[in-house]
C-alpha cells in the first residue's frame, strides 16, 4: 500500500506519519509538504532514513508537480492534512487559506481522478459546524449538524468539505471526511493555545487568554486522532463523514491554570487580552457514529495527555525554541504586541 500524507511535516500529519510507519511495516508512506512556517523538516528526522518513507517538498496547489508525483508514485490512498490551520492568521489574511485549503484540495482530487485512487481522505475540523452555546451542555455536533462557519479558516475548510462531497457525487471519487475536535500533543506548533502557554510560562512571560477564557474546546490527544483516521481509511464507508472527539470539554482558562500548576508557575502570569474576532464559544463532538461503526474510542484521558504533552515540551526544548526564536518573534509581536488587556 502506498499512502500519500500531505502536510506531514506539520503537527497532526507528522504524528500520523509516525503512527503509520510503526503500525504497517510493509506500507510506503510519502509525505508531501510545502514546508510553510508551520512545516518543520526536523520533525521528520526520526523517519528520514526509513526505507518505507519518502519526503517531497511540494505545494498541493502546484498542479503540474502534483500530477508528476502521482504518475511516478501511483498512490493507493491520499490523506490530506495540508492546510493553513490557524484561525488568528486567517483573520489577518484569508486569501492563502482559500488557496491552500480549497484549491489545493481540488488539485489533489483532480489528480486522484486522473490517476485513480482507492481512497481520498479529507482531514477536516469540527469548526465547520460553527459553535454551540455555553448554556446547552446537552447539545453536541453530529454529522448531521448544519455547516455554519465563523472564521475565514473554518469557511475554507467547509468549502473544501463541500467540494469533496461534490467530487464523490459528480465523479464517483471514493472519499471520506473526518471532522475532529482540538488536538494536542507532541509537535504542536507554538502559536496554538497549549504549546504557546507552555512556552510562555516556562519563560515567565504573560499568558494571553482571549476574553474571559470561558470558551470551551473538546480536546483530543493527537495519537487518538491518528488511530481514528487509520480506521476510517481502512474500514470507513465511502462517501461518509465521521466526527472524531472524545468528550474532553475544557474551558480555556482552566487549561491555562492547569499548565501553571503543572509547571509550578504563578497564575498571576495570566493576562486577559482582547478577544479573538468572531470567537466560537463551544465545540463538542458526538462521536457515536465512529464508535458504533468502527469501534473507535479515545484512549488518552486529558489529565494524562496534558502531563505527557508538558513532559514532551520539557524534553524537546530545542524543537520549539528554534521555532520561536525565528520569524515567530515577528508574528508574536504583530498578534500580541498591541493587543489591549481587559
Ligand atoms: P499545521 O499547521 O501544524 O500543519 C500544516 C502542514 O501543512 C504544515 O506542515 C505545512 O507546511 C503544510 N502545508 C501548508 N500549506 C501547504 C501547501 N499548500 N502544500 C503542501 N503543504 C502545505 O496543522 P495541523 O494542526 O497539523 O492540522 C492538520 C490538518 O488537520 C489541517 O487540515 C487542519 O485543518 C486539520 N485539523 C486540525 C486540528 C487541530 O486541532 N490542530 C483539529 C481538526 C482538524
Ligand atoms: O477545533 C479544531 C480546530 O482547533 C482546528 O480546526 C484548528 O486548526 C486548530 O488550530 C484549533 O483551532 P482553535 O482556534 O480552537 O485553537 P487555538 O489553539 O488557536 O485556540 C484554542 C482556544 O484558545 C480558542 O478558544 C482561542 C484561545 N486562545 C488561543 C490562543 C492562541 C487564547 O485564549 N489565547 C491564545 O493566545
TrEMBL record:
Belongs to the NAD(P)-dependent epimerase/dehydratase family. dTDP-glucose dehydratase subfamily. GO terms for biological process: nucleotide-sugar metabolic process. Residues 4-309 form the NAD(P)-binding domain. GO terms for molecular function: dTDP-glucose 4,6-dehydratase activity. It is an enzyme of class 4 (lyase). Pfam families: GDP_Man_Dehyd (PF16363). This is dTDP-glucose 4,6-dehydratase. Keywords: Lyase, NAD. It catalyses: dTDP-alpha-D-glucose = dTDP-4-dehydro-6-deoxy-alpha-D-glucose + H2O. The keyword Lyase applies. It comes from Ruminococcus albus 8. Its EC number is 4.2.1.46. Its cofactor is NAD(+). CDD domains: dTDP_GD_SDR_e (cd05246). The gene is rffG. The keyword DNA-binding does not apply. It comes from the Bacteria. Transmembrane segments: none annotated. InterPro entries: dTDP_Gluc_deHydtase, NAD(P)-bd_dom, NAD(P)-bd_dom_sf. NCBIfam families: dTDP_gluc_dehyt.
Amino acid at each position: 500500500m502506498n499512502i500519500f500524507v500531505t502536510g506531514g511535516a506539520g503537527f497532526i500529519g507528522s504524528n500520523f506519519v509516525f503512527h503509520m510507519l510503526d503500525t504497517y511495516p510493509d506500507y510506503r508512506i510519502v509525505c508531501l509538504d510545502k514546508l510553510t512556517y508551520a512545516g518543520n523538516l526536523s520533525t521528520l528526522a526520526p523517519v528520514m532514513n526509513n526505507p518505507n518513507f519518502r519526503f517531497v517538498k511540494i505545494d498541493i496547489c502546484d498542479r503540474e508537480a502534483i500530477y508528476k508525483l502521482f504518475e511516478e508514485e501511483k498512490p493507493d490512498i491520499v490523506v490530506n492534512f495540508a492546510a493553513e490551520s490557524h484561525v488568528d492568521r486567517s483573520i489577518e489574511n484569508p486569501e492563502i487559506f482559500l488557496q491552500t485549503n480549497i484549491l489545493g484540495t481540488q488539485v489533489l482530487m483532480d489528480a486522484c481522478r486522473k490517476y485513480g485512487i482507492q481512497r481520498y481522505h479529507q482531514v477536516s475540523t469540527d469548526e465547520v459546524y460553527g459553535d454551540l452555546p455555553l448554556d446547552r451542555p446537552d447539545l453536541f455536533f453530529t454529522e448531521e449538524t448544519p455547516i455554519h462557519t465563523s472564521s475565514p479558516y473554518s469557511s475554507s475548510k467547509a468549502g473544501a468539505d463541500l467540494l469533496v462531497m461534490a467530487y464523490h457525487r459528480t465523479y464517483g471519487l471514493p472519499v471520506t471526511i473526518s471532522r475532529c475536535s482540538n488536538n494536542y500533543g507532541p509537535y504542536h506548533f507554538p502559536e496554538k493555545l497549549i504549546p504557546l502557554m507552555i512556552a510562555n510560562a516556562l519563560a515567565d512571560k504573560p499568558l494571553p487568554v482571549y476574553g474571559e477564557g470561558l470558551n470551551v474546546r473538546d480536546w483530543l490527544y493527537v495519537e487518538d486522532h491518528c488511530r481514528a483516521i487509520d480506521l476510517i481509511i481502512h474500514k470507513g464507508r465511502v462517501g461518509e463523514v465521521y466526527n472524531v472527539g472524545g468528550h474532553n470539554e475544557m474551558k480555556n482558562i482552566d487549561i491555562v491554570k492547569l499548565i501553571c500548576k503543572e509547571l509550578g508557575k504563578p497564575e498571576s502570569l495570566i493576562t486577559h487580552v482582547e478577544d479573538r474576532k468572531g470567537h466560537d464559544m463551544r465545540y463538542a463532538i458526538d462521536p457515536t457514529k465512529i464508535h458504533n461503526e468502527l469501534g473507535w474510542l479515545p484512549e488518552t484521558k486529558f489529565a494524562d495527555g496534558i502531563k505527557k504533552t508538558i513532559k514532551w515540551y520539557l524534553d524537546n526544548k530545542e524543537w520549539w525554541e528554534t521555532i520561536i526564536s525565528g520569524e515567530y518573534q515577528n508574528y508574536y509581536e504583530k498578534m500580541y504586541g498591541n493587543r489591549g488587556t481587559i
